[in-house]
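Lab notebook: predicted structure, single chain.

Context: the supervisor wants predicted structures on file for every construct in the current expression panel, including those that have not yet been purified. This is the next one on the list. No modifications to the sequence; it matches the entry in the shared construct table.
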Amino acid sequence: MCRQEIPRDFIEQPNLLQHSLQLDSLHGFDGGYQWFYEGRNGWWRYDERANEDIEQAYKSDLLNFELIICGDLYVIDFENKYQYPKKKFKQKKIN
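Prediction complete. Output recorded below exactly as produced.
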């Protein structure tokens, strides 16, 4: 959440990070795999346990996988690259 005015030069002349620094700055990223889902204002990482479960299902060549997230059952559709609540059919892209 932004709580102050953003200076114009922040957009026009951004201070960019090097690619390797961006990867290293991901908490918990060990150079292996990492799963993300599209949500409000961008892409979000799955927590470590969900990430491991999703990767194992993906490596097992499953077309889809069910996962409990915050007490709700979600379907991860590997074939179409979507995640959606099993009760509702609102899809979110995964990557």
